[in-house]
Specification:
single chain, alpha/beta, globular, binds nicotinamide-adenine-dinucleotide
């Protein structure tokens, strides 16, 4: 549980958003928000009590009957308005992301743009809600399916994409006619309040979108609440498992996306410079704090030496600094504790038998929560640096002799979020796509995040539940099906018939 603090005087306060307005917390429990580039506390955020979570749920419940009858045409029109406002004001929210998360501004803008694509997908909600109709299944009888919203649904989100991951959830949830309660990460919660204000400005009725901040107390209140029909979660695997088990045991629908350990296989026939560019971009972009980051390169055969050399040459050129500085390519980590945890993998690597080829603790900026990129060689299963999700700018290399050994490593890993192969051999790439146990696969693409009209999700310990987020599976998750059998007979033909209804 996050440590709560006494309120220092004069700090910016981040409140809940309930029923269309900011709502100050009453618990007296608050969490600190830092500027990771300076290491100084910039604000503090209210932590909700179960009663405050209930107020948000009641606001969402009260808004549901009127929201679900808003026509598809009006909902689509509203989503076009949301899209326009988000597009116009994307730099504003990107600056908030950089200030609280630390990622560089260009990366923050990229996050907003990828989230915006989900909003754009939802502009097509009239088409997405279309169902099926079978005429004359029996004489004078028609059957059709309809999809209806669930009611009040909730989203619980991680620190690393404070705008985009909530968009994966609230956009399809609301477009489908549900009302929504968001519990964002307590480490960088301001983007969610910015979003609430924007949705209000766009014309989303009060109570349709609510935000409660907090820690385990707020999450548990969401999971226990009898009026919440479904929970979407994105975060680390232990919490994802807990959220899935708790929510489903309370009868809720749940999709819980967890952590990752994404491997990138480089075959000897790959273009080594291209593979090195991809590995450096995917391992160190956003300081490695992406669930789709590449954290492990698997170098096959004679690819290893030139690849490692090419990665080593690129690392000193990565510009690490304050995300607001246009020259920076990589910002700080989210907190001091996380920075120290990530650094501990570099510290411990030699003791485990791995080699530190580049030590990112050297030359890191002293103020703020900075590390530079690190590169470890001879990282093997059984080592902490191999087994754990490091979630920072530390790239490990494992050397193997064959493709079969490489794919075995990927498939034996408990996570199955993203993976990539670099090769010029189409046949091997196709075999990889066929064999690999992961939900998102890149062929010469290191970060294969699906576009908004496909769905995002991993396999194994990277996803609990059977529906991926956004895209067509997002629409399925936030709606439930109903099948109607209908006939309009001539009353004169009516008679009692106790037999089981048949179509022939
Ligand atoms: P986290 O699991 O610590 O927190 C996620 C959410 O759970 C937050 O809202 C947090 O307040 C809440 N939470 C934390 N501890 C809790 C507890 N004990 N009980 C109940 N709720 C709790 O994750 P994080 O550090 O914010 O984010 C990083 C993690 O998220 C990484 O593991 C990363 O791989 C994962 N992630 C996964 C995806 C994906 O799509 N699979 C996407 C982004 C991030």
């Amino acid at each position: 549980m996050t440590e709560t603090i006494e309120a220092p005087v004069g700090l910016k306060q981040v409140n809940h958003w309930i029923g269309g307005r900011p709502t100050a917390g009453t618990s007296g429990r608050k969490g600190p928000i830092y500027n990771p580039a300076t290491g100084r506390q910039a604000a503090e955020v209210d932590f909700a009590t179960p009663e405050e979570v209930d107020r948000a749920v009641q606001a969402a419940k009260a808004a549901f009957p009127a929201w679900r009858v808003v026509s598809l045409a009006k909902r689509a029109e509203l989503f076009f308005r949301i899209r326009e406002l988000l597009h116009e004001r994307r730099e504003e929210v990107a600056r908030i992301l950089t200030a609280e998360h630390g990622k560089v501004l260009s990366d923050a803008l990229g996050e907003v743009t990828r989230g915006l694509e989900v909003v754009e997908f939802c502009c097509g909600i009239p088409t997405l809600m279309k169902s099926e109709y079978s005429e004359q299944v029996s004489s004078g009888i028609d059957v059709y399916s309809i999809r209806q919203p669930l009611g009040v649904v909730a989203g619980i989100t991680p620190f690393n994409f404070p705008a985009m991951v909530p968009m994966w959830m609230w956009a399809p949830a609301i477009a489908c006619g549900n009302t929504f309660v968001l519990k964002p990460s307590e480490k960088d919660p301001s983007a969610s309040i910015w979003t609430a204000e924007l949705l209000k400005e766009a014309g989303v009725p009060d109570g349709v979108f609510n935000v409660v901040h907090g820690d385990k107390v707020a999450v548990d209140a969401v999971l226990e609440h009898p009026d919440i029909a479904a929970v979407s979660f994105v975060g680390s695997t232990p919490i994802a498992r807990y959220v899935y088990e708790t929510a489903t045991s309370r009868g809720k629908r749940c999709q819980a996306l967890g952590g990752a350990k994404n491997h990138m296989i480089v075959l000897p026939d790959a273009d080594i410079d291209m593979a090195a560019d991809a590995a450096v971009s995917a391992a160190y972009g956003s300081a490695g704090e992406r669930c789709m980051a590449i954290s492990q390169v698997v170098a096959v055969g004679h690819a290893a030496e030139p690849l490692i050399e090419a990665i080593k040459q690129r690392i000193p050129k990565v510009k690490v600094g304050d995300g607001l500085d246009p020259g920076s390519e990589m910002g700080p980590l989210i907190t001091e504790a996380h920075r120290d945890r990530v650094a501990s993998y570099v510290e411990n690597a030699p003791g485990e038998g791995a080699k530190v080829l580049v030590d990112g603790r050297e030359g890191a900026l002293a103020d703020g929560f900075f590390l530079r990129p690190s590169l470890l060689d001879d990282v093997k299963p059984g080592m902490r640096a191999y087994e754990d999700e490091i979630f920072g700018p530390v790239l490990g290399v494992t050397r193997v002799d064959t493709y079969d050994e490489a794919i075995k490593l990927v498939n034996d890993n408990p996570y199955g979020n993203g993976t990539a192969i670099f090769t010029r051999d189409g046949g091997v790439a196709r075999q990889f796509q066929f064999d690999v146990q992961a939900g998102m696969v890149g062929i010469n693409v290191p970060v294969p995040v699906p576009v908004a009209y496909y769905s995002f999700g991993g396999w194994k310990a990277s996803l609990f539940g059977d529906r991926h987020v956004y895209g067509p599976e997002g629409i399925e998750f936030y709606t439930r099906g109903k099948v109607v059998t209908s006939r309009w007979p001539d009353p004169a033909t009516s008679k009692v018939d106790l037999g089981f209804p048949q179509t022939r």
